[in-house]
Design brief:
208 residues; mainly alpha; 11 helices; disordered N terminus
C-alpha cells in the first residue's frame, strides 16, 4: 500500500461577512482611536487605520478625505467621559473621587487618543480640535465640579459664590496644564495634594 506524503488540504474557512454602513464606519473609528492611543497623532496613517479595521484604504478615504476629518469624527464618537457625580456628603471627598475618576478616563483608549492630539498636534491642527475637546471633555468636567460645589454650598461647607466659572475651571486647567507641560500622569498623591492645598482652602467659607 502506498501512502501519500501529502496531507489532505485543510477545509476552507468561511469568508467573513462583508461589513457595510454604520458597522464598517464604527470599525474604522475604533481603529483610529486605537492608532491614536498606540502610535499617536504623528504615527497615525490612513493605511494603518484601514489595516486595523480590516478594510481597504479606499473605504476610509471615501468617508474621510483627510486624517484630520477622520480623527475629528473618531474623537466625537469616543471622547472619555465621567458618567456620575459622587455624593459623599463632603466637598473634599466628592472632589477627590471626581478627580480620580477623571484621571481614570484619561487612561482609557479614548483618553490616550485625546492626549496624543493635545500633545503632538501643531498649533494650526490643534485649533481644529480645540472646540471639540473643550465641549466634549472640559465643559462636562466643569459642570460636574459645579454640581459638587453647589451641594457643598447648600451644606454650608463651601462659601457662597464659589460655583463661578473661574473656580470650577481650576481643576481641569491644572490637570491639563501639568499633563501637557510636565508630562504628569497625576498619581493619586498629587491629586490629594491639589484638593487639600488648593481646592479646599479656595472653597472654604470666609475666603471669598
Amino acid at each position: 500500500m502506498v501512502t501519500s506524503r501529502w496531507s489532505a488540504p485543510a477545509p476552507a474557512q468561511p469568508a467573513s461577512p462583508r461589513r457595510r454602513g454604520a458597522v464598517l464606519e464604527r470599525a474604522i473609528l475604533d481603529a483610529a482611536l486605537e492608532q491614536l492611543g498606540t502610535v499617536g497623532w504623528n504615527g497615525l496613517t490612513m493605511e494603518g487605520v484601514a489595516a486595523g479595521a480590516q478594510t481597504g484604504k479606499a473605504a476610509v478615504y471615501r468617508r474621510w478625505p483627510s486624517k484630520e476629518d477622520l480623527v475629528a469624527d473618531a474623537l466625537r464618537a469616543g471622547l472619555p467621559q465621567v458618567d456620575d457625580v459622587p455624593d459623599n456628603g463632603s466637598i473634599r471627598e466628592d472632589l477627590l473621587q471626581l478627580c480620580l475618576r477623571m484621571r481614570e478616563a484619561w487612561f482609557t483608549r479614548a483618553g490616550f487618543a485625546v492626549r496624543s492630539v493635545l500633545h503632538e498636534c501643531d498649533t494650526v491642527t490643534a485649533e481644529r480640535f480645540h472646540g471639540l475637546i473643550f465641549d466634549g471633555v472640559v465643559q462636562p468636567s466643569i459642570r460636574q465640579i459645579r454640581e459638587v460645589v453647589i451641594r457643598g454650598t447648600e451644606r454650608g461647607e463651601v462659601r457662597s459664590g464659589a460655583e463661578s466659572d473661574f473656580v470650577c475651571e481650576v481643576i481641569p486647567a491644572m490637570m491639563m496644564y501639568r499633563s501637557k507641560v510636565y508630562g504628569s500622569e497625576w498619581p493619586a498623591d498629587d491629586i490629594v495634594e491639589m484638593i487639600d492645598e488648593l481646592m479646599v482652602p479656595l472653597l472654604r467659607p470666609g475666603t471669598g
